[in-house]
TrEMBL record:
Annotated organism of origin: Medicago truncatula (Barrel medic)
Top-level taxon in the UniProt lineage: Eukaryota
Name of the gene: 11406985
Keyword RNA-binding: no
Compositional bias of kind Low complexity: 28-37
Keyword Ligase: yes
Protein name, per record: E2 ubiquitin-conjugating enzyme
GO MF, one annotated term: ATP binding
């Protein structure tokens, strides 16, 4: 039985063609990543979103950055819109991106106490794009702008805070409560 190598006559030739050398060198395998391939693509997507947020320069009163070295956990900031009960206030949010992001939404919570019809006492947010209306086309900036918009235009049909929903129509009392909670509030206790 004769054993033959997988090399071609061209490769054994002392004068190897440039095309042959290129084919062999370009067939090298990519460097292994310490993360699974799907997690690596999520990480790359999040890095692109971070760059886009940084390039926007915090326009429109939203910003977000990774919390330390973990690209899957971010801290966001939303400024209250002009002419709203939240004007002049700055809210901190936590964003936790799942390994299957952007196909599943991140978990987003207010860390700063926020008195709002669609935010509960623990900072959970009732917003359709963070649940059943999520699309992989959304990005971090879109989410933050949507939450900022929710501050101005709550969905009173599905409140998480019934008292805030009832008080919404009394603008002065509502604004007073927003500021009272904001100034007196501590960050909500982490969920156990």
């Amino acid at each position: 039985m004769e054993v033959r190598s997988n090399t071609t006559a061209e490769e054994n030739s002392p004068v190897e063609s440039a095309a042959s050398r290129h084919r062999r060198s370009s067939s090298k395998k990519p460097l292994a990543s310490p993360l699974p391939a799907d997690t690596t693509s999520v990480s790359q997507r999040l890095q692109k979103e971070l760059m886009a947020l940084m390039m926007s320069g915090g326009d429109l009163g939203v910003s977000a950055f990774p919390d330390g070295e973990n690209i899957f956990t971010w801290i966001g900031t939303i400024e209250g819109g002009k002419g709203t009960p939240y004007e002049g206030l700055s809210y901190k949010l936590s964003l936790h991106f799942p390994p299957n992001y952007p196909f599943k939404p991140p978990q987003v919570k207010f860390e700063t106490t926020c008195f709002h019809p669609n935010v509960d006492q623990f900072g959970n947010i009732c917003l359709d794009i963070l649940q059943d209306k999520w699309s992989s086309a959304y990005d971090c900036r879109t989410m933050l702008l949507s939450i900022q918009s929710l501050l101005e235009e709550p969905n009173l049909e599905s409140p998480l805070n019934n008292y805030a929903a009832e008080l919404w129509n009394d603008k002065e009392d509502f604004k007073r409560m927003v500021h009272k909670q904001y100034l007196a509030g501590e960050a909500p206790a982490p969920a156990s």
